[in-house]
Write a structure and sequence with these properties.
The protein is built from 11 helices and 20 strands. By secondary structure, the protein is of the alpha+beta class. Helix 8 (345-368) packs antiparallel against helix 9 (372-389). The strands form 4 sheets. Strands 4, 5, 6, 7, 8, 9 and 10 form a 7-stranded mixed β-sheet that branches. 31% of the residues lie in helices and 31% in strands.
Amino acid sequence: MANFSKPTVPRFSVDVYQNEFLPEGGRDVNAIVTVTSTGGGTVDAGVHGAAGVVIMVDCSGSMDYPATKMRGAREATAAAVDTLRDGTSFAVVAGTHVAKEVYPGNGRLAVADARTRAEAKEALRRLTASGGTAIGTWLRLADRLLSSADLTIRHGILLTDGRNEHESPEALRAALDACAGRFTCDARGVGTDWEVKEVTGIASALLGTADIVADPAGLAADFTAMMGQAMGKGVADVALRLWTPVGVEIAFVKQVAPTVEDLTGRRTAAGPRAGDYPTGSWGDESRDYHVSVRVPRAAVGQEMLAARVSLIAPDPAGGDPRPLSQGLVRAVWTDDLAMSTSINPQVAHYTGQAELADAIQAGLDARKSGDHDGATAKLGRAVQLAAASGNADTAKLLSKVVDVVDAVAGTVRLKAKVAEADEMTLETRSTKTVRVKR
């Protein structure tokens, strides 16, 4: 069994990177906000609350084709159970066209120790593949189980090998809406018969990660790593709070590292001129956010606070949310052309990374629809952006879909034959970014 100690409650810091100078009458202010939490995942910190994890395993009939998928899923789930920290509440759910409790049963969670781990792994031996796929029912059962105990950290791990064919897209959307903000969830697709946008959509809605495990033999290592990450979380339900003065409009708020995630539409009101954007659970990690606001026009020499960015977490005692750290976004009007036209390197980098993700998605969609010219143009632009930003991992994935003639110019040719796993991997990982070199 892996030895994961209970995480400490991390300490948060906020750093703002921007060019605050605007030309006379300029209105658009962009800033990269780096949020860093440190000190998590190192020593016992039971004071901050308990953690719970529900593992949802696809047991539909297709998991038997080939049989290595079901075997790999059982082994991966067993490995994840072994990675559970002592005292963590957990359950295992079998997902088909309905959701069934595998362990411990009776609508409750088990508490991880040597005995319950052994019992859970024994229960996994009885998993067989049959039936269809209705992922919304799996998520709703996970929500009920995680709600059955007093938990601070609530997390799900979901594995599927097929499309969500036994419930409507509206039913899955309703389940995601019902579960959003109640627990986070990492989603994985095994093999190549599942729908990328379904799996990435689940992870996006529930503030988790998404990835492909094309070869079932890789599941155990992936599940172990996922559970290890979950065990390192020290504080849940952290929000990025944005306060803006009168007259300032918010253009967008996006997470831009380690992945691109648009949070603009997830704002909830938090008092006069303030709104909260969900960021999920945190351990020992760092993330970057792009905040873009539009300020009123002003004359040279004037300056103003364009926005105040704060990290907010729930009060364990049930009081008002507590501030963790904050940073300021400023606007200063100048007639110095060099100062007002300089693009901050962090802003430029992540603007390119967001465009890279969009170009990959648009290019793959065009390729699927038979628009070869459109696909070539978009994927060529993606190659150009990946090369310019040093995103070597994405560049490597792109090279399996296109022949790169000139990376700097973005000149490419579509490959005549592309392995389905390669195309799905590129699509699934299209939002992964690289950090800017400061």
